[in-house]
Amino acid sequence: MIILNRNSSETARSYAMRVLLYNIIHVELQPGSAVSENELSSALSLSRTPIREALIELNRIGLVEILPQRGSYISKINYAIVEESRFVRLVMETAVIKLACESITDDYLLALKQNIEQQKACQTTKDGDRFLEIDNEFHRLIFECAGKMWSYHFVEEQMVHFDRLRALAAKSGYAKSTIPDHEDILYALKRKDAEMAEIFMTRHLTRYQTEKTEIMKQYPEYFTK
Prior knowledge:
Layout: H1 12-25, E1 34-35, H2 37-44, H3 48-60, E2 64-67, E3 71-74, H4 79-103, H5 106-125, H6 128-145, H7 149-158, H8 160-172, H9 178-191, H10 194-206, H11 208-218
Antiparallel strand pairs: 1-3, 2-3
Helix pairs in contact: 1-3, 4-6, 4-8, 4-10, 5-6, 5-9, 6-8, 8-11, 9-10
């Protein structure tokens, strides 16, 4: 498990939640594996209370199973829920990309270009975790450019299940189309061509269906049957 630094203003519960969420999304805590309150408490230097509260919240959003008399387990990836998450993102991002075409500035175009260069560097070093973070930042910049940050945070909350699949794709080398897709999206934004941008974004957010098949073959134990 990766232990993140605690922010000075962060409550114990928020810190526990952030660390656990990061490790679940990045599959450092593997689907189906047991988690111990005592071990987490020791690893994070926290009492058991904030750990328990974080596990209860993760149970609420479907990332942890709490079984009476048996303990807590990281939920396996449910493809039906992944598809729901992907659907929310597709609907929101295809609308936002068209708005971004109307409001895109040179500063945002430069930021997106620099972001793609960072993605290429991560691909070279095979840093899947960092690649996923920079990928998310690429999409966040588009929401910010369109003036839809509240919508971004809404989508972000819905994406945790889909993000586990994306993290596996990045770790396993199946996300090879991500950078070319982002370059195409940037090209459409430069042209301020909303129709082209929507087509490229739709293609980008539906590629996972092919990746999903390969990932499920490689990690069948991570998925619900």
